[in-house]
Amino acid sequence: MIICSLKKTIIVYLLCCSVPLIAQPLKLVYENHVLKTTEGNNAAMNALLMPYRVQLTDSMHKVIGFALSGMIKKQPESALGNLVADALLLMSQKKFDTPVDAALLNYGSIRSFLPKGDITVERIYEIIPFDNTAVLLPITGELLQQILNRFSEKGGCLVAGIRFTIDAEKKAVSIVIGNKPLQPLQVYTIVMPDFLANGGDGFIELRQLKYDSKNYLIRDALLDFIKLQTELGKPIDYKTENRIIYANH
Amino acid sequence: MLIINRRIFLKQSTRLASGFWAMNKATAFGPVTEEIKLTILHTNDVHGHLDPFPNDNSKMAGLGGVAARAAAIESIRSKTDNVLLFDAGDIFQGTPYFNFFKGEPDIKAMNAMGYNACTLGNHDFDAGMENLAFQLQQANFPAIVSNYDFTETPMDGKTIPYKIFHKQNMKIGVLGVGIELKGLVPKELYGKTKYLEPVAQANKTAALLKQQGCELVICLSHLGDWYYDNKISDAILAKESFGIDLVIGGHTHKLFEEPKMYKNKKGGDVIVHQAGWGGTHLGVLDYTILLKNKKKLVETHTVVIAKKTSE
User: Fold this and answer.
1) ipTM of the shown complex
2) Dist. CA B29–CA B77, nearest whole Å
3) HEC states along chain B?
4) Shortest Cα–Cα distance, A246 to chain B (Å)
């Protein structure tokens, strides 16, 4: 078998070679070299990195605020989720210098918890490890209803400026935005991670919409919000407050 | 007769390929004028992973880091003469190093490792064009992009469309293609950058490199290896190309088990390879090239691929 195909290849080869200027063969031997520190650790490179590592460690261990109680992530709503959504809403209003009706984030935006006590920069990086940025989108009430329905199917999301109930059919009902019932034809300004606006988590319909970006990281919004509270002499004190509830059924 | 005798010795497919090669040299092609060994090393989508991945039981735990990469590169360079080292973009963004230092240690580390060139990824724009331009000024290696027009931006004049490297008696032409930034990078980060259709630019540049006598043409690409829809990718580029021999890919974070091979418009072989992401692997491509008739311009190549066996 192998010899047959070999012969065939050689014939093809010879044919190719009889035509001038066509082929000059290359032999290629490949390897995906796995890089393990145990198999090689360049001293000069470690020396080069050292000052950056030291500075990074110092910056990451810096205390920027104080949490009055421990906060975890939970569905449909959590204290930590409310903190992140509020931070995004307030800080993006400042950054974009425009009123924003609500903040929406997917549940997967936050990955860790905030323990009671000093808040370090490193802790915020653990809560938001991704470099997603805040983007502003004009969204109709009708589309917002669809988006919240989708989030309801997933068990909830992170919101600020919006309250709603997830009914037995996993649909979003009794939606209140800016203390008023959702109006299907009204256009709302919503801040969300670029991840969602680019169609992430299955939100393909959002890809059609034009958004505004200031390249402002969601994580930076949370860091800035906590620093701002600290400057104002306020500790971080968040609880659940029925922003999203499951309907009794 | 020769083939049958060889059969006894050729047990593995990899050995088969090298046996085939040895025979070609002797029979099909007549006497060899010059055989050049060229080693291409490559990374892509390192994303600021200067340190190894943390030991958290994940698949990548303990892998990567510039100290391990530098050691591997040093070891390879000590064993062979003709080495070229490339990166296919997205050097920046992904660890706190980038958030705090904006790519400075990344470029310094690449300088120390002796990178020969890189192309640009979409995330290399993440701290803005002024920053990218500033960081590239500190680089000892060029950023090669053939399909971005940076006129009237801070990046104007900070990249080159191609470069020719001389190794032994051989010229290796390198070009680069970047992905469409619109929809992928916030507008204010790429500003007036014009994205030019990559296939046309790549073919034009490759033709120029062949004209200038390059025996091997390499394209550093941040297009991504392949997509479900018809979005331009390395697979499409390879098939639509004329004079490109090797595409070193990125963007899609794929660790190819083996290089992929496509036929270009002229029926020649185009190799596409990608080395994962986060700097956990170094792609090693050892080429053996026969320079037979140097007066004649070689348009396309046929390639015999084999996996490296442990020494």
Assistant:
1) 0.87
2) 30
3) CHHHHHHCCCCCHHHHHHHHHHHHHHCCCCCCCEEEEEEEEEECCCCCCCCCCCCCCCCCCCECCHHHHHHHHHHHHHHCCCEEEEECCCCCCCCHHHHHHCCHHHHHHHHHHCCCEECCCHHHHCCCHHHHHHHHHCCCCCEECCCEECCCCCCCCCCECEEEEEECCEEEEEEEECCCCCCCCCHHHHCCCEECCHHHHHHHHHHHHHHCCCCEEEEEECCCCCCCCCCCCHHHHHHHCCCCCEEECCCCCCECCCCEEEECCCCCEEEEECECCCCCEEEEEEEEEEECCCCCCCCECCEEEEECCCC
4) 35
The per-residue pLDDT string of chain B (311 residues; one tens digit each, 9 = 90 and over) reads: 334 333 333 333 444 444 445 444 444 445 556 788 999 999 999 999 999 998 877 889 999 999 999 999 999 999 999 999 999 999 999 999 999 999 999 999 999 999 999 999 999 999 999 999 999 999 999 999 999 999 999 999 999 999 999 998 889 999 999 999 987 888 889 999 999 999 999 999 999 999 998 989 999 999 999 999 899 999 999 999 999 999 999 999 999 999 999 999 999 999 999 999 999 999 999 999 887 765 555 667 888 899 998 65
Q: Do A24 and B298 touch (CB under 8 A)?
A: yes
Task: Identify the structural domains of chain B with CATH numbers, from first to last.
Answer: 3-304 (3.60.21.10)
Interface test with B, best of A1, A35, A195 (most B CBs within 10 A): A35
Distance CA A49, CA A44 (A): 9
The answer to whether B143 and B119 have CB atoms below 8 angstroms apart is yes
Distance (Å) from the alpha carbon of B196 to chain A's nearest alpha carbon: 22
Residues 25-64 of B with CB under 8 A from A: 28-29, 50-52, 62-64
